[in-house]
Every structure is written in C-alpha cells, then in structure tokens.
Amino acid sequence: MSEILKNIRKGEVLSLKDTLDDAEGQVVSKTLIQNDGLGITLFAFAAGEGISTHESKGDAMVTALDGSGEITIDGVTCTLKAGESIVMPANHPHAVYGKENFEMMLVVAFPQA
User: Fold this and answer.
1) pTM, entire model
2) Separation in Å, CA 47 to CA 44, 80, 88, 93
3) What percent of the chain has pLDDT over 90?
C-alpha cells in the first residue's frame, strides 16, 4: 500500500509551524498530500514574498500558523494572523503575500465527478 500522507513524522506530537524553515527571499512549500480530491501543503513565506493572483478548481482553506500574511480574494485584501483561517472559494481569483515571515497550511478540497 502506498503512503497517503507524506513528508511529515507520524505517531508523535509536532508543531506544524516548525516543520518548515524560512528562507530569506523565498517561498518554501512542503506537500503533505496531493490527490484528485484533496491537497494539503505547508508554506513559509519570507517577508515581502508571495504567490501572485491565480484560481483553484477547489475550495481552499488557509490556516495561519505563524506571523501574518495578506490574503486577497476577488480583489479584497484581509490580514490573517496565527491561529486564524479563511476559505478562498473555488474559481475565484486569490493571492497570498507575507507581510512578515508567514507560515500557513493550505487545504484544498477538489470537487469529485
């Protein structure tokens, strides 16, 4: 049987915000699961770095793990701080920007045929 959840320790308590190292001037990501129905990815944004406007075929929930970032959905920007979450609806333009060093978990649920 193939491993479903990957790139993360199993069977022990861990802090998700400590699983990625910030890299100056970069966006770092670690995919934990990616299949036709679900994607879970951890991201670390260096201050001033971001992901430009794009759309997803699935609803995407961002949970801030550390720092603060700006989430823009349909041209409206809000600030997300550690412990807060927001859902970016499927097929709506959105972007993410690290106002400071910002770590987040992205969970995307894709529609099933």
Assistant:
1) 0.91
2) 10, 14, 22, 22
3) 81
